[in-house]
């Protein structure tokens, strides 16, 4: 397997017919299938609009109609990680785990869904992260997937709902050898920056983007492209962000 596809912030809605989450997700999944047959799919949080079994199972069945590939999921602020773990044990469901080794690559799945100070914010359990870190192979190339960005980014209102203990996480990340990417969701938009040989990359929402030029309240940009990230694994790791127009 030499490809990981990241989809984020699906906000899957079962019933509301005017809600575009299902339609836009199908655009994304069709586009992925047009490009690749074999890939690992990662869902980086905010999977469903309502965190109950019915929504999670409906989303799982919906995606399964497009692909039989392996699917891993991490929770976002709209998710219920306890329920996701229960479904992963009891049903055919997305895989929930901390670490995946693919050849010379270590893929880390981080849970940031512990509630932050502000509604929508998040926190990680740093002691737990250190335990995961201790399992990483010294010379592997590494990607970390997490829902919340570990530093403040975007509109003023959004800066309040990034990772509460992001400073401590960033310090801990700096000790990791060959951390190539940290790929996050939550921001419903396109951001990329490189810090000390690590690319911090957002994944756009498969549903709708935020207008980060509006600083005082949450505003959606219905015109902006939806999209997904692709990571190509070889001796090194590279990425592309694929966009799809919804106008
Ligand atoms: Fe989110």
UniProtKB/TrEMBL annotation:
Gene3D superfamilies: 3.60.21.10. Keywords: Hydrolase, Iron, Metal-binding. It is an enzyme of class 3 (hydrolase). It comes from the Bacteria. Residues 3-190 form the Calcineurin-like phosphoesterase domain. Pfam families: Metallophos. Its EC number is 3.1.4.17. GO terms for molecular function: 3',5'-cyclic-nucleotide phosphodiesterase activity. InterPro entries: Calcineurin-like_PHP (IPR004843), CNP_phosphodiesterase-III (IPR050884), Metallo-depent_PP-like (IPR029052). Belongs to the cyclic nucleotide phosphodiesterase class-III family. This is 3',5'-cyclic adenosine monophosphate phosphodiesterase CpdA. It comes from Vibrio spartinae. The gene is cpdA_2.
């Amino acid at each position: 397997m030499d490809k990981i596809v990241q989809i984020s912030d699906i906000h899957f809605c079962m019933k509301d017919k005017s809600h575009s989450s299902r339609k836009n997700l199908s655009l994304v999944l069709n586009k992925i299938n047009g490009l690749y047959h074999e890939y690992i799919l990662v869902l980086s949080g905010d999977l469903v609009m309502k965190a109950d079994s019915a929504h999670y199972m409906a989303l799982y069945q919906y995606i399964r109609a497009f692909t039989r590939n392996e699917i891993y999921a991490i929770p976002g602020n709209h998710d219920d990680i306890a329920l996701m773990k229960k479904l992963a044990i009891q049903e055919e469901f997305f895989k929930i785990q901390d670490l995946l080794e693919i050849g010379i690559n270590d893929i880390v799945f981080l849970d940031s869904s512990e509630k932050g100070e502000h509604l929508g914010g998040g926190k990680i359990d740093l002691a737990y992260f250190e335990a995961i870190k201790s399992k990483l192979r010294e010379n592997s190339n590494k990607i970390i997937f997490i829902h919340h960005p570990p530093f403040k980014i975007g509109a003023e209102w959004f800066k309040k709902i990034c990772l509460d203990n992001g400073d401590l996480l960033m310090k801990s990340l700096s000790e990791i050898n060959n951390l190539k990417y940290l790929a996050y969701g939550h921001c419903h938009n396109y951001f990329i920056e490189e810090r000390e040989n690590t690319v911090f990359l957002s994944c756009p929402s498969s549903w709708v983007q935020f207008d980060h030029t509006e600083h005082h309240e949450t505003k959606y940009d219905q015109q902006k492209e939806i999209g997904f990230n692709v990571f190509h694994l070889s001796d090194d790791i590279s990425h592309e962000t694929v966009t799809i127009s919804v106008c």
